[in-house]
Amino acid sequence: MKVKYWANRHSITVKKDQESKWRKIEADEDGKYGVVFTEEGEHTWIFKAVSPAGTESKYVESVIRIDRTLPTGSLKIGTESWDSLQSRSSKTIKRGSDPSMRITSDDEPSGIRSVEYAVSTQRITEISKMGEEELTWKTYRSAVKVPLNKKGVTIVYARITDMAGNTTYLSSDDYKYEESKTIISKIKDMPTGSVATGDNTPIVLFVILLLAAAAVLVTLSVKRQKRGKK
């Protein structure tokens, strides 16, 4: 037999030998022979069967791959970044439009099988409860816009799974949609006064701009066009 996949579980233990040599495997109560591999990484083992009369079978080579290490990664939205499942939101981030999201991932020794993301209004703080919530997971391939909830908060989750089935969850802080306000709401007509001392002298106009936050006094300078001779 040849094992061509990675595993994160095992059922029996064989201690690593400093030298390659044959080890006898005893049958269990059901007459089955088994070996448990506990050391992480990729290992090649050769098996053979020997009858009571000493007759040996052909050798069978098996490649055993064990990976119990969780994959790592980061969830990035704008300038913010998270590398774990958050127990709470450290802050509420307000945005007037859907922000762009990126997910990075890495794993040793088996490699990454899948990277997924989900958007929700509910905060999940425990890995054991991730399956209890109705999250819609989508495959992540490249940067994507996060659809912000217009009435409540938005939390983004990432799920990174390696070839052995080990899974890491990430989550963002709370995002809240806040409608962008128009900076200039009104311009009043016209100047309250003007002064001119010659054809090429700038006319100073005082225009009051009413801004969304406060009223600001702005000075504009213009030049009078020189009249031609009649």
Which features characterize this protein?
230 residues, mainly beta, Immunoglobulin-like, 2 domains, six-stranded mixed beta sheet, four-stranded antiparallel beta sheet, 15 strands, 38% strand, transmembrane
What is the CATH C level class of the largest domain, in words?
Mainly Beta
**Per the principal axes of the C-alpha atoms, what is the gross shape?**
elongated
Report the C-alpha radius of gyration, rounded.
35 Å
Helix fraction, binned, reads under 10%
Strand content: 35-45%
| Average residue pLDDT | 78
Instruction: Give the class from helix and strand content and strand pairing.
Output: mainly beta
Largest sheet descriptor: 6 strands, mixed
Distance between the termini: 107 Å
What is the number of helices? 0
Q: The CATH topology of the largest domain, please? A: Immunoglobulin-like
Helix and strand run? EEEEEEEEEEEEEEE
Q: Architecture of the largest domain in CATH?
A: Sandwich
How many structural domains in the coordinates?
A: 2
Low-confidence stretches: 10-18, 194-198, 203-223
Please give the number of β-strands.
Answer: 15
Transmembrane segments: 203-222
Keywords: Membrane, Transmembrane, Transmembrane helix
Region (Disordered): 88-108
Q: Overview of this structure, please?
A:
This protein has 230 residues and is mostly beta strands. It folds into two domains: 11-66; 73-177, Immunoglobulin-like, CATH 2.60.40. The chain is built from no helices and 15 strands. The strands form four sheets. Strands 5, 7, 8, 10, 11 and 12 form a six-stranded mixed β-sheet that branches. It has a four-stranded antiparallel β-sheet with strand order 4-3-6-9, with no helix packed on it. It has a three-stranded antiparallel β-sheet with strand order 13-14-15, with no helix packed on it.
